[in-house]
Each structure stands twice: as structure tokens, then as C-alpha cells.
Write a structure and sequence with these properties.
heterodimer; A: 8 helices; 10 strands; B: mainly alpha; MetI-like fold; elongated
Chain lengths: 299, 358
């Protein structure tokens, strides 16, 4: 049976619980407001538009996932939100204030491991606190607290190179959160991890998010990950990058791995697939290159 | 036991084999030297005359060409006169290993021939002082300038083109100038080492600093670091280990400028010693002195490599990290950290207990 024959609900259908939850979220104050953001490279005549007309509102403590085909500028988009890149035009308001340059109100977790190799795990977490002039012992106590939360308290004196990939990313999350950011920006943070560790890290992240007052902007190319984590999923399209759809995730919370085969999940995923992987036009008659013995042809 | 290939491509050799090869790398040239010195039919182009016999121009302890000696010997034999006596030997500029080894010992014990000449250890001390001063003066300026150029494009563009040009001017070319300006004693020598080291140093260090992972800088920026803090807390520590390695290599270069520097003005230090000994034809002492430079340079580098693992604990393999951290704590009490038990880093799932400040 093909996927198209499968009787799936509409991805916009929400159970009463879920719609009530979105109702509650909508009542929360808007923390991040993006208006008509545009990014382009090159000067007059020869410009390449990465994305334009990107507008969205994010409510407090929402979990937003950004997905899109590669090259649609989703990474550039959140780098601009983080202040690491500059937008060509448009504005970003965080708590009503315009964003300019990187700041500690926006924590960031990168795909690559960006822990400082010369600092122990604890000192890494203390880094941001010290940057803000916190006393050593306060910073240390707070760092311990955050390491405890990501379950790495006993590794506080190890150096990053002594940790596994998942542990490094947990330290990176602790380091970003220790600064008390309003919004946590995560750029494919688990992409480099193996599948098992990734699942574990997703569960971790959900637990952390529940306990910390933080809004999360999460980039991923893994649709399962997006559907599993997000409240709303921002789907971007390519050439030029646009907001294709901002989908409210119909999968009820609390989430668990069993939901991966629930009808809502599959409906959402099907919709995402349609956005990300539009049907590819493969020419009917590809030139046949004979490499195999007779009878070895693949179907 | 797994089979290890001696010539595996990019395969790390077991420690034991590494050590064997290290020893072999020293032993192989030594073996060649021994063979040439002790095996009579290898090379040995001369005869050392022990008894001139009837040959009128032979004197005792004279070295004559093998062909000449054999010719005279045949002549004497044919004439029935007294035969010249001698043994095969190498030229005087290639002393046998044992002579050089002995020279190592005696060079330090032998008083200089002239009353105002320095002892060997004084010569060496002088050389080490010259090189140390030259390198320190160079580093005092070169290190900060290199870091500045590596960090800010402004300084890179402002400084590097000229330095790049200056780098091609050979340091010895400034010898006469240095003497004219700085006199004939130590200052011009230090200046030569400075000129030889400084310009390379700035460029090499700037390059190393430029290679700092931009991801680390971005991470630090999102954590609130900016400006000078970014330089001090991220760029410098991120590049310090590589800069340290650069400095080790540069110190090696400084040694190569030493001999050139020491002939400028009044000859001094180890170069003077080597020169005098060569003049007296004490080639065993010459070899000993040259080897001494190698030994000092090599052991300094080994020491610095070891010091590096003490100073930069994050560059160590995790196994030995714990006990060496104690060392570090002793060196810098401010950074003292409790020594933790060796924990196998295992991915475990903790319970989340929380006290979040909101």
C-alpha cells in the first residue's frame, strides 16, 4: 500500500486538547517578532537573494522548529537572529527591542562542537557568567547547577576532548542556558550525533525546555525531529527562501517515541515531506549504461 | 596479537616500535661513522708514517697519500733499503668516534691555550646567553605584534607587507651595519639573531592566530564576549598551543643564526671555540663542540615539549591527564582544581533535579 492510499487525517486537524494548548500559547506575549526580513548577497545587478519576506511571531516558551530544503537560508536566518550575520533589510524585535549584534539574550548551540577546548567542562559553562562579571564562586555554583541539570555534574573537571559527542552538546546547552537567554537558538545541534544518541538528546532537550523559561528556535533537516520536538514548524522554501508554511504541530504533548506512528504524526510528516521533497522529475528514458551482467539489473 | 605493519599508511606505530625507530635514527649515522673509522679497508685514503725508513722526505707522524706510500714502499723494497712503516688512517678532519667522545670529556677539563681564551663551558654559556637575549628581545616585540596582526585585519594590512619584504633580507647582510651602530661586542650579535627571528616570528604567529576556529569566536560572542575580552579569553587561549609550537620551531631557527651572528665583530662564544680548535687542528674538539650545539638544542626542545604538556593540560591524552593536573595545580595555585577520580565518560541518563532561577 502506498502512502497516498493511506487514510490519514488532515494535518490541520487538532484534537480539542491540542487546539486548547495553541489557544493558550497564542495568549502568551510575543517574544520574537520578525518583520519582512531579507538577506541578499552581491551588489546591484548581480544579487543573489537568500531569502526575503520572512515574517513571524514567536510566543514566549514556544518551541519552534525551522525546516527547509538545503540552501533555503534557514541557517542564515537564525544566524541573523543570533546577531552573527546582518540582514539586508527588515527587522527583528526581541521583547520589543531591535536586535543588533550578538548578545547574551540569545543563546546559541551550534552544530559543530564549539566548547572551548582549553577550559574544563565547568569553566566552559562559567564562561558566559564570567563575561558578565559574575564573581567566581557565584559563577561556579550556577555552573554546577546547570551541569547537574544536563546530568554532567560528575564530569565537571574533564576537558571537552574527553567527552562523547552527545555529552559535548549537553555541555553546550548548559553553557548557553547558564547565561539566562530569552531565546535559545539551536543550529542542527544533533546532526552530527548517531541516531541513538540523537533520540536521547531530543528527550533531554524536551525535559530541559519544560523546566527552564526559554523559547527555542531549532533548525533541523530531520523531519521526525521537527515533528517530535516542535510546537510550530516553520517550513521554508527555496529560491528565494520564503516562509512556505508555519504549521501548528497536531501531535499532542507529552510526546513519546510511540507517537512516531500515530496518524497525526504521519499526517504532519507527509505534509512536511511534500514541502521539502517535492516530486522530482526523473526523465523516463535514462541512457542505459551497461555495467552489470545479464540478470543483475536492479528493479 | 594483532599483526602490525611497519609501513602502514598513516597508521600509528606501537610505542615500542616508535622508540626502536628513534634509537635507530641516531644509531644508523653513528654506525656509518664507526664503520668508516674502524674498518681499515673502508675509505682510509692515507698512511700515517711511524718510521720513515729510507724515504728521505717521510717524517714520523706524517700523513701521506696511499698511492705515494705504496710507491715508496715498493721502491725501497726493490732497492733493498730500510722499509718505511705506517698504518692506514683517515684524514685528520674525520676523527674516530672514541676520540670525539673523549674530547667531550677533555674539552671541559682542558684549560685554554692562551690565558685570555675562554673555557669551553664559558664559550657555551656565552652562546646560550646571546641566543636567549636575541630570542627574548624578538619575542617581546614579535609575539604581541603577531597576535595583533592575526586578530585584526587592520594591523595585518598595516604591518605584514613590509615585514614580508624585510623577511627576504638575509640577516647576515646586516652584520657590518650592526657593528657600525652597536659596536663589536654582544649587541650586534643579538641584533643579528633578532633580525633573523623577528620577521619570521610575526608572520608565523599571525598566521597561526588567524587559523583560530571561527566557530569558537561566534560561540563566545553569543555568550557575551566582545572586543578585548574576545582576544584575551578566546583568541589567545585558542591559539596558544600552536603559538607555543611555533616558538619552539623559531628557537631552532635562532640557533642557526647564532653561528653567523658570532662571527660579527669580535668572534665569540662557541663559534670562537670551534674556530680556535680548528686552527689548532683539534678536530675532535670541533666535532664535540658542534655536537654540543645539537645536544643543547635538541634537549631544550624536548624540555619545551614536556613543558607544553604541563602548561596545556587540555592537549594531553585523557589517561595521564589526571596526575599531571596535580603538577599544574602546583605551578599555578590560582587554577588549582580538585583532582577527580578517573571516570570513564559514559553516556548515562541522569534524573533531572532542578532548581532554576526564574
Amino acid at each position: 500500500m502506498s502512502l497516498s492510499e493511506l487514510k490519514l487525517p488532515d494535518y490541520r486537524e487538532q484534537s480539542p486538547d491540542v487546539s486548547a494548548r495553541f489557544e493558550r500559547i497564542r495568549k502568551r506575549p510575543i517574544i520574537l517578532k520578525v518583520r519582512e526580513l531579507k538577506k541578499s548577497f552581491g551588489s546591484n545587478g548581480n544579487t543573489h537573494i537568500v531569502f526575503d519576506h520572512v515574517s513571524l511571531d514567536v510566543h514566549r516558551r514556544e518551541f519552534i522548529c525551522v525546516v527547509g530544503p538545503s540552501g533555503c537560508g534557514k541557517s542564515t536566518f537564525i544566524r541573523i537572529v543570533a546577531g552573527l550575520d546582518e540582514a539586508t533589510s527588515g527587522e527583528i524585535l526581541l521583547d520589543g527591542r531591535a536586535v543588533a549584534g550578538p548578545g547574551s539574550d540569545r543563546g546559541m548551540v551550534f552544530q559543530g562542537y564549539t566548547l572551548f577546548p582549553w577550559l574544563t567542562v565547568k569553566r566552559n559553562v562559567m564562561f558566559g557568567l564570567q563575561m558578565h562579571g559574575k564573581a567566581l564562586d557565584t559563577a561556579e555554583a550556577e555552573a554546577r547547577q546547570w551541569l547537574d541539570m544536563v546530568g554532567l555534574a560528575k564530569f565537571e573537571n574533564l576537558y571537552p576532548h574527553e567527552l562523547s559527542g552527545g555529552m559535548k552538546q549537553r555541555v553546550a546547552i548548559a553553557r548557553a542556558l547558564a547565561n539566562g537567554p530569552r531565546i535559545l537558538i539551536m543550529d542542527e545541534p544533533f546532526a552530527a550525533l548517531d541516531a541513538q544518541t540523537r533520540c536521547q538528546m531530543q528527550a533531554y532537550l524536551m525535559q530541559i525546555w519544560k523546566k527552564v523559561d526559554v523559547t527555542i528556535l531549532f533548525i533541523t533537516h530531520d523531519l521526525d525531529e521537527a515533528a517530535y520536538l516542535a510546537d510550530r514548524i516553520l517550513v521554508m522554501s527555496c529560491n528565494p527562501g520564503r516562509v512556505a508554511e508555519f504549521i501548528e504541530n497536531p501531535v499532542p504533548r507529552p510526546r513519546s517515541a510511540e507517537q512516531f506512528i500515530s496518524p497525526e504524526f504521519l499526517a504532519l510528516k507527509k505534509r512536511l515531506e511534500e514541502h521539502i521533497h517535492p516530486p522530482v522529475e526523473v526523465p523516463e528514458k535514462l541512457p542505459m549504461i551497461k555495467l552489470t551482467e545479464a540478470g543483475d539489473e536492479v528493479e | 596479537m594483532k599483526h602490525h605493519d611497519w609501513l602502514g599508511l598513516k597508521v600509528e606505530l606501537p610505542r615500542k616500535r616508535q622508540l626502536q625507530l628513534t634509537i635507530l635514527s641516531f644509531l644508523a649515522p653513528m654506525a656509518v661513522w664507526c664503520a668508516i673509522s674502524y674498518v681499515p679497508w673502508l675509505w682510509h685514503p692515507l698512511y700515517r708514517v711511524t718510521d720513515p725508513g729510507s724515504v728521505d722526505y717521510f717524517i714520523e707522524d706524517m700523513d701521506v697519500k696511499r698511492a705515494d706510500f705504496e710507491h715508496e714502499l715498493a721502491k725501497a723494497r726493490a732497492a733493498g733499503t730500510a722499509l718505511p712503516q705506517g698504518y692506514l688512517t683517515n684524514p685528520i678532519y674525520l676523527p674516530a668516534p672514541h676520540k670525539v667522545l673523549r674530547a667531550f670529556y677533555y674539552a671541559f677539563k682542558t684549560p685554554p691555550r692562551l690565558p685570555n681564551e675562554p673555557w669551553l663551558h664559558q664559550s657555551l654559556g656565552h652562546s646560550i646567553r646571546t641566543i636567549f637575549l636575541g630570542f627574548v628581545v624578538s619575542s617581546v616585540f614579535g609575539l604581541p605584534l603577531g597576535i595583533l596582526c592575526g586578530t585584526y585585519r587592520f594591523f595585518a594590512k598595516l604591518q605584514e607587507p613590509f615585514i614580508e619584504f624585510f623577511r627576504y633580507l638575509p640577516a647576515p647582510a646586516f652584520g657590518a651595519l650592526c657593528v657600525a651602530v652597536l659596536g663589536i661586542d654582544d649587541p650586534p650579535k643579538i641584533a643579528i639573531i633578532f633580525i633573523g627571528t623577528f620577521f619570521q616570528q610575526v608572520l608565523v604567529i599571525a598566521n597561526t592566530v588567524r587559523k583560530v576556529d571561527p566557530g569558537l569566536l561566534e560561540a563566545a560572542q553569543t555568550l557575551g564576549a566582545s572586543g578585548w575580552k574576545l582576544v584575551r579569553r578566546v583568541i589567545i587561549p585558542a591559539s596558544i598551543t600552536d603559538v607555543y609550537t611555533d616558538m619552539r620551531i623559531l628557537l631552532g631557527w635562532a640557533w642557526t643564526y647564532l653561528i653567523v651572528a658570532e662571527v660579527v665583530g669580535t668572534m665569540s662564544g662557541i663559534t670562537y671555540f670551534i674556530n680556535q680548535q680548528a686552527r689548532y687542528r683539534n678536530f675532535d674538539n670541533v666535532y664535540a663542540a658542534i655536537a654540543m650545539i645539537g645536544i643543547i638544542g635538541f634537549s631544550t626542545d624536548l624540555f619545551l615539549a614536556w613543558l607544553g604538556t604541563v602548561l596545556f593540560p587540555w592537549k594531553r591524552k585523557s589517561r595521564s591527564a589526571q596526575n599531571k593536573r596535580a603538577w599544574f595545580a602546583w605551578l599555578r595555585p590560582k587554577m588549582a582544581e580538585p583532582i577527580v577520580q578517573t571516570i570513564e565518560p559514559v553516556e548515562d541518563k541522569p534524573e533531572i533535579k532542578l532548581h532554576v532561577t526564574q
